[in-house]
Structure formats: structure tokens, C-alpha cells
Amino acid sequence: MSAQSRSGPYLYLLITMVLFGSAFTGSKVVVGEVPHEVAALLRFGGAAVFLVLLLGLSRDGARFRWRDLLVVGGSGLIGVFAYNFFFFWGLTLSPAVDGSLIVPVFSPVLTTVALLASGRETASALRITGLITAVAGAVVFFVGISIGGFSGERIGGDLLYVLAAACWAAYSIISKKVLHGMAPLRATTYATGAGALALAVAAVPSLSTTDWAGVRPSTWAIVVFLAIGPTAIAYLFYFRALRSVGPVTATISMFTVPVFGTVSSVVFLGESFTALQAVGALITIAGALLAVLQGSGKARQSTEDSDGNGLAPAGERASSTSTT
């Protein structure tokens, strides 16, 4: 295997995480000019159109089955509609930098908690320690908010980010079953399309009251970027990388999203955070890594046994935690 083919998947992951991180900043700009329901629709409605076009041009586009659409579309109501409804609502109340720290870290933590509670994974002492550490870090992070200027509105926004993370955790778990054996492009298109339709219904009351003439051209450019970059292309790059590196490496790479998201929010939005928030974030990330990766060895061994070369089936590969 050449050096280029070995490094390719990691380059895909790096580009994906940069795009994921930039999504928080870009989305914050959009919700500053249109209602959050409309902002979510613009991003994922545009992504759905782009993905449908890609699917139609692909060899897999002709393999349409209503059952696939209904099953994957149902999961999209959680992973696309509910997640983004809470996420964009949170952006109207809280800084994007909070979301870039809370959502990518809490999603794998809540996924791990749910799997432990259901008995689908084992609870070792180290995993429990990791979860407790992550929660302690979150407490420190929220205390740090009060030092930077306490606001009930900001706390409310951060809690909406937590709800968004919970939706993605549920979607990650459900995806293990419903996406099994389905090509990533088709699964992503169906889930995004169904979620976008639900977002359209939620946005109907706000469409007529939106000041469309007041939306700046630069904001429309950001909408296009969000739909194509951090949504359609990033997800496809992510799934393509998973074919080679597996879910464990992908999970680790997700913990770089807060770094890119924070830098983007500070540079482009002028947002800031206190030293105590930074400490809390680092504690939470460390605890989350410990909790998530303590269960990865068994999962990786199971994956290797499944096909003999360390790659999970298509459905397993498409289910690793990713969020923006």
C-alpha cells in the first residue's frame, strides 16, 4: 500500500473535522438574520437537494426501495430534524463556542451511557471513572459561564445543545440497525431528506415573517457553504474514511472538533470563554475519551472478526458518532 493510500483516510477525517468545527460559526451567523427553524431548513434542505443529485448520478441511485426510505427516514427524524431543531435554537441563545464544546463531547458520552444502561456494553471501572470525570468537567464548564457573565438565556442555550447531543446519541445507536448493509450515500441522502422535510414543516410559520430582503449576500454564501461543506461533503468524506480506519479512530478524531470550532468562533465571531471554562472543557474531553475508548478494544475485535480485515460491515461503519 502506498503512502498516499495510507494517509488518504486520515486526510478525509481531518477535512471533515475542520468542516464540522466551522459549522458552528457559520450557523451562528445565519441564525442572526433568520429564525432558527428557517436556518436549519436552509442548511439541510440545501444539503438534501445536493445529495439527491449525487445519488441520482451514482450507480447506487437506481436501487430505490420504499422500505429503505421509510426505515432510514425514520432515523433521520431524530438525527437530522430533532438534533438540528435543538441545535439551531441553542445558537440563538448561547455562543457558538459553547456548542462546539458541548455537542461533539456529550454525544459520544451519552451514547456510551445509553449502551451501558441497556447492557449492550460492559461497565469497567475505568469507563465509569471516565464518565464521572466527564460530568465533573461539564459542571466546571457551566460554573465557568457564571464567571464570564451569568445569563439564564445562555444556560438555556447550553441545555438545548445537550438535548441536541442526546438526539445524536440516539441516532448513532439506532443507525447500527437501520443502516446495516446500505451504501453510505444512499443512507445519508434518505436520512437528510426526511429530516429536511420535517424541518420544512416546522419552519412554515416563520417563512412568511422572515425578512428575506434583509439577508445579506455574504449570509447566503454561508448558507450554501453549510449545505455543501459541513453537511453533504463532510458526511461523505467521513463515511469514506470509515471504510479504512474503522470506528475507533473516527471516534477519537471527533474530539478535535471542539478545537476547530473554538478557534473558528473566536477568530470569526469574536467570542470568548473564561479560563475555568477551558479547564472544564479539557476535563470533559479527557473523561469522554477514557469512557469511550475503554469499550473500543472489544468493539474493534468484534469488527475484525466480522469480515477478517478489520473493517466493519457497511451499516456498522456508518454508525460511528459524528455530529455538527
UniProtKB/TrEMBL annotation:
Transmembrane segments: 12-32, 38-57, 69-89, 101-118, 125-147, 159-175, 187-207, 219-238, 250-269, 275-293
Record membrane topology: Multi-pass membrane protein
Compartments where found: Cell membrane
SUPFAM superfamilies the UniProt entry points to: Multidrug resistance efflux transporter EmrE
EamA domain boundaries: 10-142, 157-292
Disordered: annotated span: 299-324
Keywords of the record: Cell membrane, Membrane, Transmembrane, Transmembrane helix
Entries under InterPro entries matching the protein: AA-Vitamin_Transporters, EamA_dom, EmrE-like
Family: Belongs to the EamA transporter family.
Protein name stated in the entry: DMT family transporter
The organism of origin for this protein: Kutzneria chonburiensis
Lineage, broadest ranks: Bacteria, Bacillati, Actinomycetota, Actinomycetes, Pseudonocardiales
